[in-house]
Structure formats: C-alpha cells, structure tokens
C-alpha cells in the first residue's frame, strides 16, 4: 500500500513541477502563462495529454517498425523500473547492490535513444542520438 502512496506522491509532484515550471517561464517571459484550461490553468497538463493522444502516428518510410516503436518503450521502462530498486520504503529489502542495479538499468536509456535513432533509417537521427 505504501508503494502506491509513494507512486501517487511522485506523480502528483510531477504535475506540480510542470505547472510551476510553466508559471515561472511565463513570468520570466513577461506573459500570463497557462490560464485557459480549468481554474488557474491547473488542467493544462491533462489538456496536453489529450492533445498528444489525438495526434496522428508518424513512421518514417525507412524505419524498422518494431525497433522504432520499441526504443521509447525501453527507455521509459528503464526509467520507471529504476524506482523499484532504490531502497526508499524498506531500508534492507533490496540488499547492498540496489543502487548499482539501478544505475545499470538507467544506462539502458542511452542505448534506447541510440537504438531509436538507428532504427529510423536516417543518418541525421542517428547523429542526433549519438
């Protein structure tokens, strides 16, 4: 149960951090910021998510389909699964190698970015991923 509370707190912090970052960016750029969706613009992140889900899929003609779609999933899975090995809730549950295992899995993110650039079939995407 405490793991779900931790994950909920982490997601709530992420939403708050995005909102505060947008407000600060608006203040620095001397503009009003997100105010159109919900009270004080609190639903802007949800509106951005819905907009992203409605967008058309784009796949380059030279792309390797499985790798092109699998690379972002691998990067996301490596990032999210790292939290399960860090000993936040139970100090001795993961053993002495929890941090090393987390760093090893995090190194997969760089490989996933490179794999995504390579699978697109474009030399420019590959250079950007490198």
Order of helices and strands: HHHHH
Percent helix: 55-70%
Shape descriptor reads flat
Low-confidence segments, ≥5 residues, pLDDT <50? none
Average pLDDT score: 81
Total number of beta strands? 0
Report on the biggest sheet: none
What radius of gyration results from the CA coordinates? Answer: 19 Å
Structural class comes to: mainly alpha
- The N- and C-terminal alpha carbons lie at a distance of 41 Å
Proportion of residues in β-strands? under 5%
Tally of helical runs: 5
Q: What is the domain total for the residues?
A: 2
What would your notes on this structure say?
The chain has 130 residues and is an all-alpha fold. The protein folds into 2 domains: 1-55; 60-130. It contains 5 helices and no strands. The protein is flat, with a radius of gyration of 19 Å. The N and C termini lie far apart (41 Å).
Descriptive labels:
130 residues, 5 helices
Can you describe this structure in just a few lines?
Helices cover 68% and strands 0% of the residues.
Ordered list of secondary-structure elements with their pairings:
Layout: H1 2-28, H2 44-54, H3 65-85, H4 98-119, H5 123-129
Helix pairs in contact: 3-4, 4-5
